[in-house]
From TrEMBL:
InterPro entries: Cyt_trans-like, Pantoate_ligase, Pantoate_ligase_C, Rossmann-like_a/b/a_fold. It is an enzyme of class 6 (ligase). Beta-alanine binds at residue 61. The active site is at 37 (proton donor). This is Pantothenate synthetase. ATP binds at residues 30-37, 147-150, 176, 184-187. The gene is panC. Its EC number is 6.3.2.1.
Length: 281
């Protein structure tokens, strides 16, 4: 595995791979790898000659009161996991390498961003599309892999690729979960012992909503109310949102039909957890 820290090193490596007609699968991450990330690497490994993994904690997607400084980092552990998982190229740039000066051009995500996490994280997805645009240009992948747990991010990235005509495919990989149903997340390390016992209830609440839909419920408001009651009864966290939209357009619906996402966010003492289920009705 090659570990590269500069853009010039990465450019040179990609040129060589392209000359050899190697297909490239790309997994962009902010590090502190867990089984969810490893599932993306595995899928890329199955589909491509070369797997490129990036590790970069992008400050542009953190708000002023968010956890950029506290975001967990362990590059040595990440390197070992990347090596064991079959990554060919690990790109781990510094902040100065990625953003050496103030930008001359500012990117702004417009659609699919004013709901779910984007509603309270102004500018978050501007930061996401900015860093991914840079990385897509540098890596020139045939496909990029994202976890379905961050379903809004997947929807925004799909729009980015379509609007700017990037010659790559976005592949969404199902959420990896603990045995108890809790979605894998780097932020799970912030949960207290009691919160770890409660956190699996997020996924169970979503399953409860899906069961109601399968039993014939078609009113999105009713589904929201059912999930809200469930979460308030089974967790001590504060419900941030429970929302039902069409997917991937993330538009409001009056009647549940077609491709639908049920998404939730719950704020615990030191960790905000998100989860979702996407179903076709």
């Amino acid at each position: 595995m090659k570990k590269l820290e500069t853009i010039e090193q990465l450019k040179k490596s990609i040129i060589e791979l392209k000359h050899e007609n190697k297909s490239i699968g790309f997994v962009p991450t902010m590090g502190f790898l867990h089984e969810g990330h490893l599932s993306l690497i595995k899928k890329a490994r199955e589909n491509h000659d070369i797997v490129v993994l990036s590790i970069f904690v992008n400050p542009l997607q953190f708000g002023p009161n968010e956890d950029f400084e506290r975001y967990p980092r362990d590059i040595h552990r990440d390197e070992q996991l990347a090596l064991e998982s079959g990554v060919d190229v690990l790109f781990a740039p510094t902040l100065k390498e990625m953003y050496p000066h103030s930008p001359s051009i500012k990117m702004k995500a417009i659609s699919r961003v004013d709901v779910l996490c984007g509603k309270k994280r102004e500018g978050h997805f501007d930061g996401v599309v900015t860093v991914l645009t840079k990385l897509f240009h540098l890596v020139q992948p045939d496909a990029a892999y994202f976890g379905q747990k961050d379903a809004q991010q997947v929807a925004v990235v799909e729009a980015l690729v379509k609007d700017l005509n990037f010659p790559l495919q976005i592949i969404s990989v199902p959420t990896v979960r603990e045995e108890n149903g809790l979605a894998k997340s780097s932020r799970n390390v912030y949960l207290t012992n009691s919160e770890k016992q409660e956190a699996p209830q997020l996924y169970r609440s979503l399953q409860y909503g899906v069961q109601a839909i399968e039993n014939g419920e078609r009113d999105p408001f009713a589904i929201v109310q059912m999930i809200s009651t469930y979460l308030n009864e089974h967790t001590s966290g504060e419900v941030d949102y429970i929302e039902v939209y069409s997917y991937p357009s993330l538009e409001a619906v009056n009647v549940l039909q077609g491709n639908i996402i049920i998404a939730i966010a719950v704020q615990f003492q030191s960790a905000r957890l998100i989860d979702n289920i996407i179903i076709e009705i």
